[in-house]
Design a protein that fits this description.
The protein has a single domain, classed as SMI1/KNR4-like, CATH 3.40.1580.10. The protein contains 3 helices and 7 strands. By secondary structure, it is an alpha+beta fold.
């Protein structure tokens, strides 16, 4: 399980109210496991950033967890928060609304959590998005 000690370059801590505001804006309920993570650590980079998978390429490397609120490097621009990232891909129908992107990987993709089942998926973007 990931915990705060695994993260660095985290954003300012969020409250349960911040989390609920994000859920309300997106019209979803974030799975409890992800809520717990974000209440302990609002995005950031991880020390152990490679996970083994059961399908090719058999490992996945995480670039950064997307913050719920606050993003110092991008002056809190919503496009660089979970709500802006999810809204953009949902509105363009590039990502099903039950998949919530919460982390970027080094394969030009996202890690997404299925808000209905809690399953984690890798979503690979076919085109580079210069706005991210």
């Amino acid at each position: 399980m990931l915990n705060k000690d695994n993260f660095y370059k985290c954003e300012k801590k969020i409250s349960i109210g911040d989390l609920h505001a994000c859920e309300n804006k997106l019209g979803i309920t974030i799975p409890n496991s992800l809520k717990e993570l974000y209440l302990n650590c609002n995005g950031g980079m991880v020390y152990k950033d490679i996970w083994k998978t059961t399908v090719p390429p058999y490992k996945l490397q995480i670039s950064i967890f997307i913050p719920i609120k606050y993003n110092k490097d991008f002056r809190n621009d919503p496009d660089f928060l979970i709500e802006g990232t999810a809204s953009k891909f949902w509105d363009n129908e590039n990502l099903p609304k039950e998949l919530l992107p919460f982390a970027l990987d080094y394969s030009n993709g996202f890690l997404c959590i299925n808000i209905n089942t809690g399953a984690i998926y890798q979503y690979l973007r076919l085109e580079w998005d210069d706005t991210l």
